[in-house]
Every structure is written in C-alpha cells, then in structure tokens.
Amino acid sequence: MNSDLKQTHCDIIIPVWNRIHDIRACLNSILINTNCDFRLIIVDDNSSIDTASYLSSFADRHKKRTMLLKNKKNVGYVKSVNLGIEATSSSYVCFLNSDTVVGEKWLTNMILAAEYSKRIGIVNPNSNNFGLKGKGLTVSEMSEICSKGPSIIAEQAAASGFCMLVKREVINKIGLLDECFGVGFFEDADYSFRAKEAGYMCARALRAYVNHRQHASFNEYGDWENHFEQSREIFEKKWWPIERTVIFVEKKYAEEDCNKIVIELSKILYRGEGVIVAGSKSALGILLDAWNKAGLPIHVNLKCSINNKIVGNIKYRLRNLIKKKKISRFVSANEFLKTNIGL
To answer: For 18-30, what is each residue's pLDDT tens digit?
Structure first.
C-alpha cells in the first residue's frame, strides 16, 4: 500500500436503529476487512435496550477508535448522519448503513478511487445494490472478484447513500445533508447534485465491494414506500424529475450523427438520468467507438443491450410492471435527436 495512504484517516459514520444482528455483522466486517486508519462514529438513534447495550459494550471494547453518540429520541437517518458529520475531523468521511457487510480492503480501494482525480468528490463501492448479485458467492468472494477488475473507477450521476465516501473539502463547501428528506430517501442524490454544482463528480470504486441488505433499516419505519414518494416529490421540486430512457438504435449511423447522439447522451447522464441503448451489436459498436473517441469516461448510468425495437419494447415494458424505478421514455435514436436538439 502507498505509504501516504496508510496515513489517510477516515471517519466512518454509522446510524443505528435496532436490528442488532445487522450492526454486529457490519462492525465485525469493518474490524476484519479495513486496512487503513479509521475511526467509527456510531449514532444510536434511540435503539431498544438490547441494541443500545451492545453498542455501549462495543464502544467500551474499542475505545481508541470508536465514538458513540446517543440520541434521546428517534430522529431518523438524515439527522443522525448530520450529527455524526459534526463530530468528524478527518480528510475523508464515510456514511455507512448499519445493514451492510464490507469486503476486504473496501475502504482502501474507495480512497484510491477518490484520489484518482481531484474532481472526484463522492465515491460508492461496487455492490449487490448495483446488480452485482453474485448468486451463491460470499462477500469475500465477491470482493476478490471486484479487486481484480481492469478499471479503478466509473463515473456515476449520483451516489447511493448506503456507503458514501466523501472528501472533507466537499463537506466544507456544501455542508450537511438536507434534513427536509426526513427519515431518508433521495438525500443521497440531493447531496450528490449539490456536490456536482460545486464542481465535483461522483464515482464508483470498481475494485471495492460492500454488500447491502436493501431497505432493511427503513422497514423498521413501517410505511417506507410512502416515505419514498414524499422524498421523491421534494427532490423533484428542488431539482427535476429523474427519467429513465430506452433508446433504440435501429441502424448504423454516420460519424457526425453518432457524435451528436453521444453529446446528447452525456448531457442527460449528467442530469442523473438512466439510459439503456438497445440495438444490434454492430450499431452499438459504432456508437461506443464514438463515445470513446470523445474521451468520455465509463458511466454507470449508461447500459447497452443487444435487442431490436420489438423485443426491447416488450422486455422493458414488462420490466416496468415489477420495478419501482420505471422507464419513462421509449424512443428511437432519430426521435431522441429530434427531441433533444431539434433536428
């Protein structure tokens, strides 16, 4: 490991509300799999007696690297993270959900990704959250697979809050999470957009891996779907609706038109939209060549799918029946160009 990295200090903020088995697994994985300097800032959000007692015992056993903050009443995820941020002093701060299990060298690889470019302000790890399910594989095995990947980072439109590494300079510029999002949902996207407004980018550390039991914490609150919709409404009023688009590339485009498509794609990806480009292998290849020639980085919000328009329409409309995050626009590449740049 780089000797400078050994000296890099990170404060890890973990808000906790009950679910003792989750937080025990999370903390054990951190102690075993973190090989750089860190401090734990655990925020007990008025947990039940068994969880509160466990956290107190853990903090006593690991006094040198643990700070335990106790809320007298349950204030929710966002405010708990903010209380943790106010107690930090390190060059990096990580917001970590209590229902996660971290892989080997997770934090080291996230910091390496953050230091890849001065523009990078916020970093996520690879995760089952992003489709890396690894059916039948352990967290350790998934971590090993990711650590051998060919690329260090990929750009992403916004970071996901289950595990967010944030540079101190970003916090100094944009401050705390916006508490208008209450118990949570969309506070991570909002924070990412604020960081981008300040000149930073969000990235994914492709060689780091963290497993996340999605919504395990929010299930404690009961009607989490209602919380989700309320937070989405707040986010979209503050910024804009986040669309998901499927673009069907039905022919091989000339270089000039490919360049136009690529430019418009990069614009909507920056806005946070998710895009699936579907078409033949050869048509997609030409478009990807144009993307690479433009010097654009790998972007996790851009997916390619070898499908014709008929099959793709059926596939993705069926997807909308079961997925919460729905595709809102189905267009051909010609329609995409006309809509976006008025050709």
So the answer is: 999 999 999 999 9
Q: What is the pLDDT of residue 341?
A: 59
DSSP 157: S
- Cβ-in-10-Å burial (0-12, 13-18, 19+) of 15 comes to buried
The one-letter amino acid code at 330 reads F
For residue 4, pLDDT beyond 60: no
Q: What is the DSSP string of 266-332?
A: HHHHHTT-EEEEEE-HHHHHHHHHHHHHTTPPPBTTEEEEE--HHHHHHHHHHHHHH-SS---EEEE
Q: Is 303 left (phi over 0), alpha (psi -120 to 50) or beta?
A: beta
CATH entry 1.10.357 includes domain 244-341: no
- Predicted confidence (pLDDT) at residue 3 exceeds the cutoff of 60: no
Domain ranges of the chain: 3-237, 244-341
The span from the CA of 190 to the CA of 163, in Å, is 15
| Class in CATH terms, 3-237 | alpha beta
From residue 187, give the alpha-carbon distance in Å to each of 95, 160, 163, 327. Answer: 12, 9, 13, 22
C-alpha to C-alpha distance for 204 and 155, rounded to whole angstroms: 6
278-298: pLDDT as tens digits: 999 999 999 999 999 999 888
Give the count of alpha carbons within 13 A of 79, CB side only. 14
**What integer pLDDT is reported at residue 343 of this predicted model?**
38
